[in-house]
Amino acid sequence: MAITSEVEEVFSRLFDHRPFLKGEISFFKREFEEKRGDREVEELFRALELTTEIKQAQVEKVVEASDANLPRTIADIQVALRMCHTSLDSDSRTSRLSSEIERQREDRQQRLAVAKAEVEAKLASINAAYDLKEKELREKFAKLDSSNTCDS
């Protein structure tokens, strides 16, 4: 049995790495905790201090600033909104006015065409009357001229 126990001891020393690994793991863990543990705790305390400071001072400042500035900002936004609505209304009025102007322009064009036609008709009747009078006067002067030549 002695040989068996010696073989087991040699086998465990050669192939059983658990005690070595356990020692390495505990060493790594200790080194990691020493190097990183304090830094993490410091970071947590710093974050806690910042949040406490923000909670105590900054929140009140933000509330005061918003109480002071929000009414003016809201008023400015309402003015801008009214200006936008006014602009939109003026655009719609402009489009309505432009359509009204276009309609009035067409009406004027139609009245101008009618007036031109009336003027041309009157001009034609005046020209016809002038031509008729000219013809009558020529005939009258021709008769007078022929009666003067006959008398002489």
Automatic annotation (TrEMBL):
<dbReference type="GO" id="GO:0030133">
    <property type="term" value="C:transport vesicle"/>
</dbReference>
<comment type="similarity">
    <text>Belongs to the BLOC1S5 family.</text>
</comment>
<feature type="coiled-coil region">
    <location>
        <begin position="98"/>
        <end position="136"/>
    </location>
</feature>
<dbReference type="Pfam" id="PF14942">
    <property type="entry name" value="Muted"/>
</dbReference>
<keyword id="KW-0175">Coiled coil</keyword>
<dbReference type="GO" id="GO:0031083">
    <property type="term" value="C:BLOC-1 complex"/>
</dbReference>
<protein>
    <recommendedName>
        <fullName>Biogenesis of lysosome-related organelles complex 1 subunit 5</fullName>
    </recommendedName>
</protein>
<dbReference type="InterPro" id="IPR017243">
    <property type="entry name" value="Bloc1s5"/>
</dbReference>
